[in-house]
């Protein structure tokens, strides 16, 4: 989580500690490990003005206390503004739907670089809600 927070901080300019603490507080409520080697850690930060999503594919799976007990090798970090409300939940649901599509996980795990991962995640994606 600390490494994920560090990467997110570098990309957003937000405080790494604030990101880490937000994610840690959410995990204390229950694991965001949703099964099949996937975790979707998420949280809201007052300093954000829009949603941010980050994908990480781990070389070595880690224990994440997922609902199916499987270690996690695909993480999708979602950060939202404090007042995101329903947008935050819609984004979580959308990420989960994309990752559950047939073949997506296999292609994601086989992707060799960031652009290939992006292509897998955006291929045939549903349009954004207005």
TrEMBL record:
It comes from the Bacteria. PROSITE patterns: PTS_EIIA_TYPE_2, PTS_EIIA_TYPE_2_HIS. InterPro entries: PTrfase/Anion_transptr, PTS_EIIA_type-2_dom, PTS_SugarTrans_NitroReg. The lineage of its organism: Bacteria, Pseudomonadati, Pseudomonadota, Alphaproteobacteria, Hyphomicrobiales. Residues 1-124 form the PTS EIIA type-2 domain. It holds the Pfam family PTS_EIIA_2. This is Nitrogen regulatory protein. The gene is ptsN. SUPFAM superfamilies: Phoshotransferase/anion transport protein. GO terms for molecular function: protein kinase activator activity.
